[in-house]
């Protein structure tokens, strides 16, 4: 697993550190950037992939809400969440255990021994300083006595005492320093062994963490592929629905035109039937009138005709 500072991450993403901080602030509920004990940000391949996704989404003119939704779906897809929940919980537990074990790089025993060595060194330095001051003061007093005319015997006696005290002091200091060196050597060996053990354990924990992170990264890639397939299927369905709606809209327009034409034809037909009916009524009335006139003419003719003579009544006259 590679680890990058904020400046290295900005160079890889070809953007500025200020932009990375703004993205972290915008998506702080989703995008969590890890930090060191001193508060410095650092980025892994996982964070870089998520930030690259954010950059690409903004390049596609997506707004902040759509970017948040996409990141949420990438990190926690609904369809595979139930299948991966157990594996993620186990991976997180292993990461927490490894992190807790890594924090034991500075045990109490190591700190105590280092403090003890530092304290002994301080005491030794203080003792040497005191002896040097005592020597200087004593020599100063001797010089003063010589200036005042002290006898040579006193000077020799004092010199002998100084030499004896100096030899005794040097011998004591050498013994103390040798003992201190032996103790320091033992402490250093123990510290080296502890550091070696901690380093070996840290390496094993780092390997386990790397394996777990790779496993989680593979899961994230699989989830992303699933989301991409879902997105493609959704886009295809949307296009088909849009095409169907357009087709239905055109069909509806044509149906409306057809219905309107039928209404128009119906009105024309009704008008033609009305005119034909009026024409028939008129013809019927004219024929009825002619018939009435004919009947009336027959009646008048019948009334005006003289009575006929019977031929056989001629002989009776």
From TrEMBL:
One of its GO terms (molecular function) is DNA binding. The keyword Transferase does not apply. GO terms for biological process: regulation of DNA-templated transcription. Residues 4-72 form the HTH merR-type domain. Pfam families: MerR_1. It comes from the Bacteria. Keywords: Coiled coil. SUPFAM superfamilies: Putative DNA-binding domain (SSF46955). Residues 263-297 form a coiled coil. This is MerR family transcriptional regulator. It comes from Niallia taxi. The lineage of its organism: Bacteria, Bacillati, Bacillota, Bacilli, Bacillales.
């Amino acid at each position: 697993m590679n680890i990058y500072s904020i400046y290295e991450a900005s160079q890889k993403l070809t953007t500025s550190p200020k932009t990375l901080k703004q993205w972290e602030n915008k998506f702080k509920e989703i995008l969590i950037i890890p930090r060191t004990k001193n508060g410095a940000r650092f980025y892994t391949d996982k964070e870089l992939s998520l930030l690259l996704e954010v950059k690409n989404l903004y390049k596609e003119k997506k707004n902040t809400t759509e970017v948040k939704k996409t990141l949420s779906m990438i990190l926690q897809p609904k369809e595979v969440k139930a299948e991966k929940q157990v594996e993620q919980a186990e991976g997180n537990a292993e990461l927490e255990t490894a992190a807790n074990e890594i924090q034991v790089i500075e045990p109490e025993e190591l700190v105590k021994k280092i403090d003890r060595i530092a304290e002994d060194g301080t005491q030794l330095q203080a003792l040497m300083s005191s002896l040097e001051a005592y020597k200087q003061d004593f020599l100063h007093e001797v010089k003063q006595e010589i200036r005042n005319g002290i006898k040579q015997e006193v000077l020799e006696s004092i010199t002998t005492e100084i030499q004896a005290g100096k030899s005794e002091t040097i011998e004591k200091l050498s013994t103390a320093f040798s003992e201190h060196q032996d103790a320091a050597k033992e402490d250093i060996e123990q510290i080296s062994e502890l550091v070696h053990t901690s380093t070996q354990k840290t390496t094993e924990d780092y390997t386990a963490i790397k394996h777990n992170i790779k496993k989680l990264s593979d899961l994230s890639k699989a989830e992303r592929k699933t989301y991409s397939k879902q997105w493609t299927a959704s886009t295809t369905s949307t296009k088909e629905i849009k095409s169907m709606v357009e087709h239905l809209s055109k069909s509806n327009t044509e149906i409306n035109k057809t219905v309107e034409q039928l209404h128009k034809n119906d009105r024309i037909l009704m008008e033609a039937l009305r005119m034909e009916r009026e024409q028939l009524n008129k013809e019927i009335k004219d024929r009825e009138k002619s018939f009435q006139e004919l009947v009336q003419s027959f009646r008048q003719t019948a009334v005006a005709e003289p009575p006929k003579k019977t031929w056989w009544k001629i002989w009776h006259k």
